Prior knowledge:
Layout: H1 10-21, H2 24-29, E1 32-37, E2 40-45, H3 60-77, E3 82-93, E4 102-111, E5 115-124, E6 129-143
Antiparallel strand pairs: 1-2, 2-4, 3-6, 4-5, 5-6
Amino acid sequence: MKHAATRVSPQHLENLKRSCLGATISVFLHRGIEIPEPGIAKVTVPFHPQLTQNSNFVHGAVLFEAADTAGFIAANSLEETYTVLTVDYYIRLLRPVRGEGINAVAEVIHRGRTLITTSSQVFSDSGALVASGQGTYMVTGTPLTEVAGYRDAPPG
């Protein structure tokens, strides 16, 4: 989907990024977030031994979380008034990750009036494709201004 024609406020993208970075899960995961343009988002999760399962592979739930969050941010980057919520998310885990962080890149592939669909790919730090997925997000009636951190002043 071409997003260049989509106009959203740069302040919306900053507010969305700040709000998502302030979430408890973001702090726990030491997550990084980029929104290079409306409809596209990148989420990075650095490697940490606490994120592994019993064979020392990064747990699949971490891959899911990064992919779903990237999809959520890509979807909400196009919606400036209300927050979105995940309706469903399908992920295919392609290969295990050991001793590396991950990054998920998502792009909006369809935008309807109330549902937004994204496609995500998850890569290891070495560049291997480790998972791919697709999510659907619903535009809620909850204003973004009621979401923690969305309208707070930037730190500093």
